[in-house]
Design a protein that fits this description.
Helix content: 25-40%
Radius of gyration: 23 Å
Structural class: alpha+beta
CATH class of the largest domain: Alpha Beta
CATH topology of the largest domain: Ribosomal Protein S5, domain 2
Number of strands: 10
Shape: elongated
Strand content: 35-45%
Distance between the termini: 18 Å
Order of helices and strands: EEEHEEHEHEHEEHEH
Largest sheet: 5 strands, antiparallel
Number of domains: 2
């Protein structure tokens, strides 16, 4: 199984001010180099009045990562590399960041620039929601009305989520579980129903993006 690692769950933006210069950091998930480049182009277009739009990204994770940064006109090594260093130290993968600078009239010097760009990257990571790509099963189950509430509770206990419920003669429930948690749910369902119920796997997704604290946290128990 591919190594699991945290990724951004959604776009985030944070701003700091250093000697009247504004540094606005925007972070997004980026699963390909093309996605990262498209994001960088979007920010450069959105913030075309800025003094600099400094990009850095990590696509992949660990030994199979593609890393990139540039200084976008700032002195060499003072902008892109500090941002990239923050990303590489964050434990995240599949992330792109652009730090947009609006010059405030006071030069910061090389050390000041390094700190400012690094601090801006840290600021956006501090508020960034995190997720993981987790292998999941989508499953279906036909159950009697008499067991509905108990099965709903059971799904929650095994950190699954109910995607749909169809009510007819029986109830048809569509659920999603991490691959690691599904066998435990299945066994608990057998016990609850005295062997009469079993969920059927209808689809397996190797890379479902789930916010940390739900599925991912459950698998780390």
């Amino acid at each position: 199984m591919a190594k699991r690692y945290p990724i951004p769950a959604a776009e985030a933006r944070a701003e700091i001010e250093v000697k009247n210069s504004r540094f606005v950091a925007t972070a997004v998930p980026a699963f390909t180099v093309e996605e990262a480049k498209a994001f960088i182009a979007r920010i450069k277009a959105e913030c075309s009045d800025a003094t600099h739009n400094v990009p850095a990204f990590l696509v992949g994770f660990g030994n199979s990562v593609t890393a990139h940064c540039n200084d976008d006109g700032e002195p060499s090594g003072t902008a892109g590399r500090p941002i990239l260093a923050v990303l590489q130290g964050s434990g995240l993968g599949d992330i792109a960041v652009v730090v947009t600078r609006y010059y405030g009239g006071t030069k910061l010097g090389t050390g000041g620039l390094v700190r400012a760009y690094g601090d801006a990257a840290k600021a956006v990571l501090d508020i960034l929601p995190r997720a993981e790509k987790v292998p999941t099963h989508t499953t279906m189950l036909a159950l009697p009305y008499s067991l509905l509430e108990q099965v709903r509770l059971l799904v929650g206990e095994w950190n699954g989520r109910i995607l749909d419920e169809q009510f007819a003669a029986d109830i048809t429930m569509t659920m999603q579980f991490t691959v690691a948690r599904f066998p435990g749910f299945q066994e608990a369902l057998r016990e609850l129903s005295h062997g009469s119920l079993a969920a059927e796997v209808v689809e397996t997704n190797e890379a479902t993006i789930m916010p940390l604290g739900s599925f991912a946290a459950a698998e780390n128990d």
